[in-house]
Amino acid sequence: MSTYPTYFDRDALLACARGELFGPGNAQLPAPPMLMMDRITEISGDGGLHGKGHVVAEFDITPELWFFDCHFPGNPIMPGCLGLDGLWQLTGFNLGWRGWPGRGYALGVGEVKLTGMVRPDRKMLTYKVDFTKAVQTRRLTMGVADGIVEADGEVIYQVKDMKVALSES
């Protein structure tokens, strides 16, 4: 399916952020500090819970991360929207990994449940994205996926019907 590897370390993710991995005008991750993962450990176009593709990634948590100082002073918590953004980032990355052209952008999410928090004492987040649909036509390139975020093995975020599209314009 894809000619790209199924594991990406931090250097490869930074190359993607610079537009070097999938080529100019194609899927690109944000640069730090908005890059919400340190490595992608699994990726496929036909695996996962629904057989339509998946991504698994990890993000190392340290007390020095930029958001702990400002959200909230004296009560540091990673903003939940950053975990959601990490799931969107991975959904778009998977579309680029499939070799599909265009720049990624989030279209929305059907349902979000936040049942835990990321505090500075956590060690690692694990993102798991499972595609329910991946479509590429002349007019539309889009992925629809469900996802979870685990903090040290505990499920803390769950999303349903995340949508990410690629656009060549």
Descriptive account of the structure:
With 169 residues, the chain is α+β, with helices and mostly antiparallel strands. The chain has one domain: Hotdog Thioesterase (Thiol Ester Dehydrase, Chain A). The chain is built from 3 helices and 7 strands, in the order H-E-E-H-H-E-E-E-E-E. Strands 1, 2, 3, 4, 5, 6 and 7 form a 7-stranded antiparallel sheet that branches. A hairpin with a 4-residue loop joins strand 5 and strand 6.
Low-confidence stretches are: none
User: Which radius of gyration do the C-alpha atoms yield?
Assistant: 15 Å
What is the number of beta strands?
7
Q: What level of helicity do the residues show?
A: 10-25%
> CATH homologous superfamily, by name?
Hotdog Thioesterase
Number of domains: 1
Give me the strand/helix succession: HEEHHEEEEE
Helices and strands, with pairings:
Elements (H helix, E strand, L loop, with lengths): L9 H8 L21 E6 L9 E7 L5 H5 L9 H18 L5 E6 L2 E4 L9 E13 L4 E11 L2 E14 L2
Antiparallel strand pairs: 1-2, 2-5, 3-7, 4-7, 5-6, 6-7
Pathway: Lipid metabolism; fatty acid biosynthesis
Main location: cytoplasm
Family: Belongs to the thioester dehydratase family. FabA subfamily.
Features:
169 residues; single chain; 7-stranded antiparallel sheet; 3 helices; globular; Thiol Ester Dehydrase, Chain A; alpha+beta; 36% strand; 7 strands
Short description:
The chain is built from three helices and seven strands; from the N terminus they run αββααβββββ. The chain is an alpha+beta fold.
